[in-house]
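Good morning,

Attaching, inline, the backbone tokens for the sequence recovery test we're adding to the shared suite. The designed sequence is right after.
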């Protein structure tokens, strides 16, 4: 994938918080909608909420019962996460 974007919305008690990953570049292998056996693997690099560089390797089981992953995130202002923390979890970073 090249320059992709993923938007995630978490719904909690009628409220929603959003987070996005942008500028994603990487590779997805074993992606299929015809089987529930095996894994889909992703290796990506991009930006978390437009500011922190994220690198991640993720393995998703096709039966949707298991997610494994490793990754890193460069230094960024953690108050940026309030857009998802406050509405979804009633938490705030100061």
């Amino acid at each position: 994938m090249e320059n992709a974007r993923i938007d995630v919305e978490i719904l909690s008690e009628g409220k929603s918080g959003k987070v996005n990953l942008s500028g994603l570049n990487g590779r997805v292998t074993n992606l299929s909608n015809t089987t529930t056996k095996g894994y889909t693997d992703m290796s990506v690099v991009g930006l978390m909420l437009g500011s922190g560089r994220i690198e991640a390797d993720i393995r998703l089981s096709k039966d949707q019962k298991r997610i494994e992953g490793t990754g890193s995130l460069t230094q960024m202002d953690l108050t940026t996460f309030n857009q998802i923390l406050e509405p979804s979890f009633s938490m705030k970073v100061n």
